[in-house]
Write a structure and sequence with these properties.
Homodimer. This is Serpin domain-containing protein. It is found in: Cytoplasmic vesicle, Secretory vesicle, Chromaffin granule; Secreted. This protein is an alpha+beta fold. The chain has a domain of 272 residues: Antithrombin, Chain I, domain 2 (2-Layer Sandwich). It has eleven helices and 13 strands. α1 runs antiparallel to α2 and α2 crosses α5. The longest helix is centred in the N-terminal third of the chain and has 28 residues. The N terminus is likely disordered. The chain binds 2-acetamido-2-deoxy-beta-D-glucopyranose (4 copies).
């Protein structure tokens, strides 16, 4: 399995932990708020690793890249409209322990997080946002509109899904614009039955604190597996940066800092140890790593320059993670319109990550399309022995009565 696999989660996974604490302005609200931010970050990390494991399992021997934060925010946004066990499933699927944190605290947590991430920062380009595309005739509850706006800073666009190609272009172009052209086609198809689409996007661009010199980048071997080797542009650097040799899990970690003091953590499992390491990806491991990383001189760091992309449909994977009802006619999304007649048809996610001598550029988006539940179709199949009675209406006389056990028998 390619070591690049590991990269996928880092940036994104780390961001959900690391982008948080330092620069969040916690003024008057104090401990309580900080406890919530911490709970939010640790639930998000738990969700990130769970989602990673499912994606890695479904895409063996392929690069994996996604933004767990984008998926978490999009699902939390959707949960504003969910009720009953549909709601509980989403929040528990996002790894919140509902005996410890309440729904309103979760939404406030995401509200703080969105505000913190969107603070202007001259060392870092980071923008995270939400939008909803609403079928012209769909009447949303005022409460849903207000919460979407206040808690998730969502923009709203009236959309004619009757013309699915035009609706798809409108949404995909919006995402493309917000991700600086990096996510070009979030939705591949959009059904004409769609009445509502929720979108989250993330764009990130940062420069390494210590940049690689392009003059030192040379073609070198990268061992995809024991048998397969490819040539890659390999960057190289001599620097002092947080480093940890994890003997217990059999891997080496290097943390590269951006000028903003955010960072990317690169994890290199020992040969043949990728799967063992993947199994140990849990929030406690990340915490232990963070405590163990210490600045060290690395005389020669070799890191490939790369550009990877992905496009996933997450329906099955979310189902595996326990978020099931939203996809079935048992869905209760009555918080959106007041009526229990909506169902999620697709959850799609696209991500792109470029790592080069200057730094990192990454973008991701998550889209959730929602349809009206089709009218219940009733099917009755007489495909086993049955009875028959033919009754004359006026006299209520049973004129024939029988049992059909084998229709092919004379
Ligand atoms: C949720 O939190 C409670 C109280 O802290 C704890 O007893 C319980 O084990 C937790 N549940 C899960 C699934 O972690
Ligand atoms: C995104 O849209 C804004 C406003 O319409 C425009 O000014 C900007 O150039 C667009 N950016 C990209 C990358 O298309
Ligand atoms: C590697 O190549 C050897 C010999 O060609 C073969 O027996 C083995 O199955 C290959 N291993 C993998 C992982 O492809
Ligand atoms: C990053 O951290 C260093 C050391 O703690 C500090 O001197 C510097 O001002 C920080 N830079 C930013 C952009 O926060």
């Amino acid at each position: 399995m390619s070591p690049l696999l590991a990269l996928g989660l880092l940036l994104a996974g780390l961001c959900s932990v690391h982008c948080l604490p330092e620069n969040v302005v916690v003024k008057d609200q104090d401990r309580r708020a900080r406890v919530d931010d911490h709970t939010l970050a640790s639930s998000n990390t738990d969700f990130a690793f769970s989602l990673y494991k499912q994606l890695a399992l479904k895409n063996p021997n392929k690069n994996v890249i996604f933004s767990p934060l984008s998926v978490s925010i999009a699902l939390a946004f959707l949960s504003l409209g969910a009720r009953g066990s549909t709601l509980t499933e989403i929040l528990e699927g996002l790894k919140f322990n509902l005996t410890e944190i309440q729904e309103t605290e979760i939404h406030q947590g995401f509200q703080h997080l969105l505000q913190a991430l969107n603070q202007p920062n001259n060392q870092l380009q980071l923008s995270v946002g939400n939008a909803m595309f609403v079928q012209d005739q769909l009447k949303l509850l005022d409460k849903f509109i207000e919460d979407a706006h206040v808690l998730y800073s969502s923009e709203a666009f009236s959309t004619n899904f009757g013309d699915p190609e035009a609706a798809k272009s409108l949404i995909n172009d919006y995402v493309k614009n917000k991700t600086q052209g990096k996510i070009e086609e979030l939705f591949k198809v959009l059904s004409p039955e769609t009445v509502l689409v929720l979108v989250n996007y993330i764009y990130f661009k940062a420069q390494w604190k210590t940049r690689f010199d392009p003059k030192h980048t040379e073609q070198a071997e990268f061992h995809v597996s024991k048998n397969e080797t490819v040539e890659v542009p390999m960057m190289t650097l001599d620097l002092k940066t947080p480093y940890f040799r994890d003997k217990e899990l059999g891997c080496t970690l290097v943390e590269l800092m951006y000028t903003s003091n955010d960072s990317a953590l690169f994890i290199l499992p020992d040969e043949g140890k990728m799967q063992d390491l993947e199994a140990k990806l849990i929030p406690e491991t990340l915490t232990r790593w963070r405590e163990s990383l210490h600045p060290s001189r690395i005389h020669e760091l070799y890191l490939p320059k790369f550009s990877i992309k992905s496009n996933y449909e997450l329906n099955d994977i979310l189902f595996q993670l326990g978020i099931k009802k939203i996809f079935t006619d048992a869905a209760d999304l009555s918080g959106v319109t007041g009526t229990r007649n909506l169902v999620v048809s697709q959850v799609v996610h696209g991500a792109a990550l470029d790592v080069d001598e200057e730094g990192t550029e990454g973008a991701a988006a998550t889209g959730i399309s929602i349809e009206k539940l089709a009218f219940q179709r009733t099917t009755v199949r007489f495909d086993r022995p049955f009875l028959i009675a033919i009754v004359l209406k006026d006299t209520q006389s049973i004129i024939f009565l029988g049992k059909v056990t084998n229709p092919t028998q004379a």
